[in-house]
């Protein structure tokens, strides 16, 4: 079967692999679409310390069930559109013991700590197969990245009488905006790009602030009547946005961190104490987050076409990644059609 492999930094090629066979408790899926995400971009650039090259990328998946192994319970049918839960959990670490399997100490995400599924077929345990109802296989590839944003909103315990500031309107930030708006919160989207901010408003943000051209603190004070945000979700992963999150959250607010900052961040830690902040990490997603995204997408209110920047064939992945590197701010999702 055909597969896409990142061989070395800036080097991608199409390789032939043996088609996997299904075993007991497993499901064979035909992969239709796989999204490139930020971790894949970092792998391509040689900046992902969790990856050992060469690696097959891909964990944002739209697939169709091809074959069902023995000992798989009912509810799965051949031809069903599905997405995949790309994380593993050991069942023994502190996170697993506490029921937060998404943050397993020994997690191995597809395409990161182990080979992904940017290939024609894949076999997974039935527990990692997520039926997606009437969602097309193309649009199923959007579910996992949106679920990460949905999970951040859950971590922030967002309610309907709160101001929620989302810093970064990429795919994961958009997921957070959607979920916070669905919960009834007043959402303030912050980004450097006006096109992304316009999309954020169509996805549920009440306010849009361009941090490149506007005074963010002044705008936040105006919008929140001087109180600051009740919840700030950081979905960029830069020192500047981490500091912004702590500066703009209100007293006794919550800061939820999704992005990984590549460099050390210098904080005025007095705000941690003075504001009595809750600072929370948010990693991956839980099955409930996947279900929430699927429910949302099944309403027909998600402008899926606007979230897909480009669809390419495996042979064109190198060119697509080079274009993404050259203009990263203009890409939401690049999908590979297999």
Tell me the fraction of residues in β-strands, as a range.
25-35%
Number of helical segments with 4 or more residues: 12
The class by helix and strand makeup works out as: alpha/beta
Q: At the third CATH level, what is the topology name of the largest domain?
A: Quinone Oxidoreductase, Chain A, domain 1
Helix content: 25-40%
Q: At the first level of CATH, what is the class of the largest domain?
A: Alpha Beta
The H-and-E topology, N to C, reads as: EEEHEEHEEHHEHEHEHEHEHEHHEHE
Second-tier CATH architecture of the largest domain: Alpha-Beta Complex
Unreliable spans are: none
Main sheet record: 7 strands, mixed
Protein model, in words:
The protein is α/β, with parallel strands linked by helices. The protein folds into 2 domains: 177 residues, Medium-chain alcohol dehydrogenases, catalytic domain (Quinone Oxidoreductase, Chain A, domain 1, Alpha-Beta Complex), CATH 3.90.180; 135 residues, Rossmann fold. Helices cover 29% and strands 26% of the residues. It contains 12 helices and 15 strands. The strands form 3 sheets. Strands 3, 4, 5, 6, 7, 14 and 15 form a 7-stranded mixed beta sheet that branches. Helix 4 packs across helix 5. The longest helix has 13 residues. Keywords: Oxidoreductase. This is Alcohol dehydrogenase. One of its GO terms (molecular function) is oxidoreductase activity.
């Amino acid at each position: 079967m055909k597969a896409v492999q990142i061989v070395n930094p800036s080097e991608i090629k199409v390789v032939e692999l043996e088609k996997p066979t299904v075993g007991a408790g497993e499901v064979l899926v035909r992969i239709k679409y796989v999204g490139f995400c930020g971790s894949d971009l970092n792998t391509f650039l040689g900046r992902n310390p969790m990856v050992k090259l060469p690696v097959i990328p891909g964990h944002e998946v739209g697939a169709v069930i091809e074959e069902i192994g023995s000992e798989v319970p009912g509810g799965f049918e051949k031809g069903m559109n599905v997405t995949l839960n790309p994380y593993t959990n050991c069942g023994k670490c502190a996170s697993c013991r506490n029921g937060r399997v998404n943050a397993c100490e020994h997690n191995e995400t597809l395409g990161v700590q182990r080979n992904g599924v940017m290939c024609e077929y894949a076999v997974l345990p039935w527990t990692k197969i997520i039926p997606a109802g009437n969602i097309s296989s193309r649009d199923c590839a959007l579910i996992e990245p949106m679920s990460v944003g949905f999970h951040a909103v859950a971590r922030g315990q967002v309610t309907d009488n709160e101001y929620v500031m989302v810093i970064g309107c990429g795919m994961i930030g958009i997921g957070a905006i959607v979920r916070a708006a669905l919960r009834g919160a007043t959402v303030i989207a912050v980004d450097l790009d006006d096109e992304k901010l316009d999309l954020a408003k169509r996805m549920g943000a009440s306010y849009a602030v361009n941090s490149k051209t506007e005074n963010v603190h002044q705008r936040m004070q105006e919008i929140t009547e001087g109180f600051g945000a009740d919840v700030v979700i950081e979905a960029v992963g830069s020192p500047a946005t981490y500091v912004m999150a702590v500066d703009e959250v209100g007293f006794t607010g919550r800061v939820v961190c999704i992005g990984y900052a590549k460099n050390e961040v210098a904080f005025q830690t007095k705000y941690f104490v003075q504001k009595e902040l809750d600072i929370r990490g948010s990693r991956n997603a839980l099955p409930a987050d996947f279900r929430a995204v699927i429910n949302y997408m099944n309403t027909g209110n998600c402008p899926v076409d606007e979230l897909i920047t480009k669809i390419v064939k495996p042979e064109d992945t190198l060119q697509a990644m080079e274009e993404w590197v050259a203009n990263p701010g203009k890409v939401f999702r690049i999908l590979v059609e297999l």
